[in-house]
Amino acid sequence: MITPQQPATFNVSFEFFPPKSEKMEKTLWASIERLAPLNPKFVSVTYGAGGSTRERTHRTVQALKQRTHLAPAAHLTCVNASCVEVDAVVDAYAEAGVQHIVALRGDPPDGIGSRYDAHPDGYQNTADLVAAIRARHAMEISVSAYPERHPESPDWDTEIDVLKRKVDAGATRAITQFFFDNTDYYRYIDRVSDAGITIPIVPGIAPIHSFKSVARFAKGCGARIPAALAARFDGLDADPKTHELVAATVAAEQVEGLRRQGIRDFHFYTMNKSDLVFAICHLLGMRPSAPPVASAEKPAIAVV
User: For residue 205, what are the β-bridge partners?
Assistant: First the structure.
């Protein structure tokens, strides 16, 4: 049961994806305006598979920097780009005042499960990308982490070694793939600690806007859905109001369980939808406190 008796003593960050239509742009900014008063530590903007949203990501990050008080973090991958092209993107962010990159290898252009081939003139993996960013700018660099192992990792030694190489290259934080059983996270933290890795490992929280969609995505990325969790959504496909109430409770319970173990930072995968995320944060004791998100004049975001 969620029973917050005092003001929230934890930090949140939110992930958004760049819009590809005028309607999606309105949804994105409505979500940002709804969540910004919760004063997130940062907000990240994703980078589409194969670099497919490169320009839209860059424009959205720049708009966040120009229009809001928020600290934007730009996702950046190695996929389908040379080192020269990637370096130019990093330099452009630095010039725009963006001081946080979420450095990722990226999914293969043909999707998760297909063969990944590095660009012949590009960075070969995330550790190489992190080292290049660190050599060019004094930025905060977040990387990914996988409490249930990355689908391509053959064993835990390989999984932890990949993270360690990213940390040794200069990563300052890791954000996990979403998970639904906190025990998986605790076991992962033990492995990370045993390897001498000391950067924060921030749990990634996925509010369940649609159980069917989340279950399908979880299967593709190797995230396990406990039977007890699935049972809580049984019969709610045609009952969106109850589904949302259950989803808010499930996520708030998960975060509260992690908080009881001393975790104080949480990264929410919003899917550009704010109401459920706002409700979860409210259940956890968080209340709006930041100033309004936008200035009087809002520069338009070019949608391509």
Answer: 268
Q: What is the pLDDT of residues 15-25, one digit of tens each?
A: 999 998 999 99
| pLDDT tens digits along 110-144 | 666 656 677 788 899 999 999 999 999 999 999 99
User: Which pair of tokens denotes residue 103?
Assistant: 């450095």
d(CA 211, CA 220): 14
Question: Do the bridges between strand 265-269 and strand 11-16 make them parallel or antiparallel, or are there none, so unpaired?
Answer: parallel
**Edge-to-edge strand order for the sheet containing 201-202?**
201-202, 173-176, 140-145, 100-104, 72-77, 43-45, 11-16, 265-269, 204-205
Cβ–Cβ < 8 Å for 18, 271 = no
Residue 140 falls in the annotated catalytic set: no
pTM of the full structure: 0.91
Q: Yes or no: say if 146 and 184 are a contact pair by the CB < 8 Å rule.
A: no
Strand, helix or coil at 239? coil
Q: In sequence order, which ranges of 137-205 are alpha helices (DSSP H)?
A: 156-169, 182-194
Q: Which candidate in 15, 25, 148, 159 is catalytic?
A: 15
- Alpha carbon distance 151, 59 (integer Å): 31
pLDDT at 52: 55
Task: Give 101's strand partners.
Answer: 74, 141
The closest alpha carbon to 6, from 286, 297, 275, 216, belongs to 286
